[in-house]
Amino acid sequence: MLKAGTFVKSTAGHDKNSFFFILYEEGEYIYLVDGKIKRLDCPKKKKKKHVIALDWEKQSPGIKIREYKKVTDEEIKQFIRCFKRENQVVRR
Fold first, then answer.
1. How far apart (Å, rounded) are the C-alpha atoms in residues 43 and 57?
2. Angstrom distances, CA of residue 66 to CA of 4, 10, 11, 24
3. Cβ of 37: how many Cβ atoms within 10 Å?
4. Domain boundaries, the chain
5. pLDDT band at residue 60, thresholds of 50, 70 and 90?
6. What is the mean pLDDT of the chain?
7. Which of 11, 34, 51, 57 has the fewest CB atoms found within 10 Å of its own CB?
8. Which spans in the chain are helix H?
9. 34-40, long-range: CB within 8 Å, 24+ apart, which pairs?
10. pTM of the shown model
11. Within a 10 A sphere around the Cβ of 61, how many other Cβ atoms?
12. 8 neighbors 32 (Cβ within 8 angstroms)
């Protein structure tokens, strides 16, 4: 289930294999942030069918997003960077 705060991986488009958090949803679209290129003030609009949810909540900024607490682009960027490092994600 895709909802605000969910950590996702893009499966289509020029950002394929990139990681994001869902900021909010609107119909068949979701709005994504990564803290680096797609920041909180200008989220990326993407169809829900073009992402997959990742079950990785460890100290996640997604929890803050879901609870409507203040979260920063830096927190999001740092989380994604740590996730990639811990899971040895290689961008192709």
1. 21
2. 6, 20, 23, 9
3. 12
4. 7-86
5. confident
6. 90
7. 57
8. 61-66, 73-86
9. 34/76, 34/77, 34/80, 35/72, 35/73, 35/74, 35/75, 35/76, 35/77, 35/78, 35/79, 35/80, 36/73, 36/77, 36/80, 39/73, 40/71, 40/72, 40/73, 40/76
10. 0.86
11. 23
12. yes
